[in-house]
Design the sequence.
């Protein structure tokens, strides 16, 4: 079967570059169009792009001519790494033009008719696209920090329910794009504030773990409190997490570890190309996970969990970590697209 | 009045060096003796010491001959920056020899007859020395991360009581001494584990804020849950904190800020030489405090608080930060000594 | 005598902020006006400025209203930390309006009638202002990396002459201003290129050490080869330097050290307020100078030299280091102003 | 053909770990024995080793029992990542026992009968083993910083000869092993001194490029001057280099680039498993190579060259960079072993 042509929106940005790296040899999708702001349009990708990946630009991609967001596109699937300042209108525009927009941007995540999906958890939410107002569709993945939290919470929530979660993040600089964080602000420093991040973390996981209803999604009824910080780490968001289970649930730490380690979902069942074999991996070393050391495990597609231990206020605490621009962004969107196609949803949009 | 001769135990270590910097021109104390391990003994301080401060060794101190822990000392007050592997026995040995040991080590902090003091909070605990078994005395200050937490909690506890506290720390490398943390472990990384640190943070604040009884100290009855991490920051421990007040207490954020900002204690009342004018300073900028930018405020002797905001699980959350080797270690011990002298406790040990 | 009112041009930038810190309690100059781009004008300095210093903005300065570069100024002396994209025309404009512009910008450094001065070396070059085309004047200091090189070369050149110099720099991020270098580019990295920097380093020292002639300055006849890199260091430019003396000159390393250490100039003779007691300090430790450890020595106004040793190609090699935004920028301009006033040149511009 | 069993000496160290990573799926060599200090002996490799690589320990290797340097070994080829404090005697001991020791240690590099080989340059020096005093043999690769310099110089030397070379290095922390450089020394800092490094760089390239004689190797007659520094970079040594060709040789920069880019050697001719297709790659971007961005190019086995430009003192200057623990250490030794086998030298030692 021939590969589906795809476009990358925001192709010169940090997430856009990661789309290029992850899609360059994809068995189902073929990079056909690269789209960026009008000032990049008309240039070759290698000219337009301040490439920051640790491998050279794939030769074929380097020579593609960048299109403008004003140009019509021919690819049926668009991966969007657009900046949130423009993604809101642009993605609607593309959906109106009949494209399936697989978006990493925050703008439409909480819309009542837009699925916010982590396919291991809630691929059935894709059905929401049938309610959308457009000939095309918009589907979204979560914020990067939410991703690892929601994945670690999913098996817990399914098994025991959750009352509340307290999370403190230590987020990598790559999450802020390029040029993003000034070196003057972060070298040898921690910045205890990321605009809008805590608000996103306090609502997104509940939608992902929520119940599909005719009107939208009933959020899962647990409370999240988040404190978000930026640290001088290149890739990999680390989070300290305390979880409070409903009264009466006091599983052993071993039982929690077993539930996390053995959790599998639809991407594993279907062996989707980008699916990690083990979506959550519990590390036993006392000082792991660590961003610099573990971020490339399982090609950056797993959530790593460590330091599971009882908590004197909640029920247990743990440390979680994942690759913020792979599973937390471009890789999440690609896995969404693979799941969307595998489940047959894409068929109605084929042309 | 002539200055009191003092000795520094563990003088070549990170905390010992900070004692030298902070005491070099002290109005009440005069560095008379420097004590280190036998392999340093007999050398000049400048030869024995791998000096890591950002100012040269004071000339007079550089030329002092280092004594061994096996040598008898003549100074009535000893500042101990000894490593915890040796501090336990050594400090008892010196107390038996009649010295007042002002210790920064963890070994005796939780002993029933040893005061664990932050003079702004519980200088009345110094009375416990009268119960000690030795001709001399041991007084201690808290762990560096506990210091900033206990200070930020003290006015809250006094005003409203506290039910529980969740804290995640991001601790500077200088807290691990020298050579301490390998650059291979921390460059561009976060290590989510510091041996023994969480255990200390979960019990020390309660003793400091506890009630003096004939048998010791009744710990304050709140619960602390701590998650401790190491980050690539030189000086300054940053902590994200959620505080739960007892039911019925819902102060406004402005009221909390006012209580923190206006808090003063005995060191301020007596204008002790090392006392910060304002022990807690609430910063209003949305992204502060930051270690690299704020660690030198108030000569490193304040606890800085920022981002006070409501918390959906507890009552409010905040970010706190302080200089781990100044207020969190050497400066804390020096302020303890100043308070101990000012309150007359030292008089019984004068010779 | 009352203090001379001064203005700071480019007051919100990195160099502008350093001017504020260094001039806040200056005995001769009083900060009267702060000037920035039109979008900052009309705001208080604390609102207009993204303050990056490790001490708070002085209260009086924080409340000054920022003026626009389009506004007329009343201060006779202007310290310019303007970006080179605007400094060229703006400084001429101010000189035409009768101001003495003490500039840190590169634009006019090599003009035939503009003195490029390090007052320890060539304060007699100030006489060039009498040839300038304007009622006011422009005087300049060198590029930050040139500063430490020129200072270290001056006593050598005076004593033995110089045939050639090879220098490799490792420059701090603060030299690029704010936001300047993206953290994505420099964290755990070295960037072996700084636009225009090598060109400046290869010509400026020769003008500073050159001979005043009726037409301008005859450059000193030695050759400089420079390789400039950016490293993840906050403050402090480090340089490895090989010096080739003319044939027949083979001083011992001790002789070179003595010549450097004992060198003094006009700022020391006159005890100018910002003058370091010792302009060049030779360190004897085998692994110094180091930016993080030595950058604050002598208040950042000295050039530090270490590792003097014979060189198998040139005559000797060494490592030099200095504070790039103090002696390498704002402090250099202030010392120039102090020297300019002390030598009576300012008298003709007083109003 | 079955694979040759090999042992790794110093298997738990930084270079030893890199040997494990690079040899885990080698077509010719099979890891049979892991050797470390007596205190590691008897443990499984995963217990004995503080693993610092960014991928997990290969499972089979993790379970191997570590042997002591006192144990007899059965593998005919030993890769030595031993610390230089013990490598001198230990390697002789193994050579006396009949083993071929492929050493990365400095101890025997300059011995008159020990080949110091970069197989692209001087694989004919392997013949020196026939002169060795032992039933086995010792062959060595160069110091990590010398590696990239010697490779970049080889085609130049061959084409035009070389008069002198000035090099300044900026070396990664991984070059110092583990725990190696304290984070207190290098975070946000540059240390302008690495013990013994400049001495090695000033003599090794001349032996590698020298002429084999009956008595040993006549060193190539050019002069090297080196200044070595440590920077806060994880992997990748960067070097600024000025090269002076003999008078009369003034090739264009394009000609130099062409000579470097087109250079090939015996490992390329024989398609050795670890040989890079292109041993030297000239990058055209103005700000490359950079360690964090380019260190993994060509699997870390190439020397990357950038910023070729004329030099006002020498003939031209450039920036070079390579992976210090791959091509600069473990990878160099493995390529040496592959070349040694391919050229038939190993046949006399087979058992």
Sequence:
């Amino acid at each position: 079967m021939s590969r589906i042509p795809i476009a990358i929106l925001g192709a010169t940005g940090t997430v856009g570059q990661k789309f290029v790296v992850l899609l360059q040899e994809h068995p189902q999708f073929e990079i056909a169009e690269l789209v960026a702001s009008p000032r990049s349009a008309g240039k070759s990708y290698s000219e337009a792009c301040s490439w920051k990946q640790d491998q050279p630009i794939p030769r074929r991609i380097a020579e593609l001519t960048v299109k403008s967001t004003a140009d019509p596109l021919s690819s049926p699937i668009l991966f969007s790494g657009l900046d949130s300042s423009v993604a809101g209108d642009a993605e609607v525009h593309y959906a109106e033009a009949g494209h399936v927009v697989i978006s990493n941007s925050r703008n439409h995540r909480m819309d009542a008719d837009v699925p916010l999906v982590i396919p291991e958890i809630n691929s059935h939410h894709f059905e929401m696209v049938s309610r959308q107002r457009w000939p095309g569709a918009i589907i979204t993945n979560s914020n990067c920090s939410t991703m690892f939290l929601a994945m670690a919470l999913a098996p817990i929530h399914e098994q025991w329910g959750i009352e509340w979660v307290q999370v403190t993040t230590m987020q990598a600089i790559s999450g802020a794009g390029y040029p993003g964080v000034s070196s003057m602000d972060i070298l040898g420093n921690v910045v205890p504030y990321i605009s809008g991040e805590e608000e996103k973390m306090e609502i997104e996981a509940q939608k992902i773990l929520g119940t599909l209803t005719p009107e939208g999604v009933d959020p899962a009824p647990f409370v999240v409190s988040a404190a978000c910080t930026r640290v001088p780490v290149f890739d990999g968001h680390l989070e300290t997490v305390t979880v409070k289970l409903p009264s009466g649930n006091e599983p052993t730490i071993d039982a929690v570890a077993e539930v996390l380690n053995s959790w599998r979902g639809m991407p594993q069942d279907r062996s989707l190309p980008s699916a990690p074999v083990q979506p959550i991996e519990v590390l036993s070393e006392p000082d792991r996970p660590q961003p610099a050391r573990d971020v490339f495990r399982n090609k950056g597609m797993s959530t790593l969990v460590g330091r599971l231990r009882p908590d004197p206020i909640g029920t247990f605490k743990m440390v979680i970590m994942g690759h913020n621009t792979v599973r937390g962004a471009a890789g999440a969107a690609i896995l969404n697209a693979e799941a969307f196609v595998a489940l047959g949803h894409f068929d109605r949009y084929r042309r």
Remarks:
- The domain at 4-143+330-349 of chain B is CATH 3.40.50.720 (Rossmann fold).
- The interface with chain D takes residues 14, 52, 173-174, 178-188, 232, 234 of chain B (CB under 8 Å).
- The two ends of chain B are 15 Å apart (CA to CA).
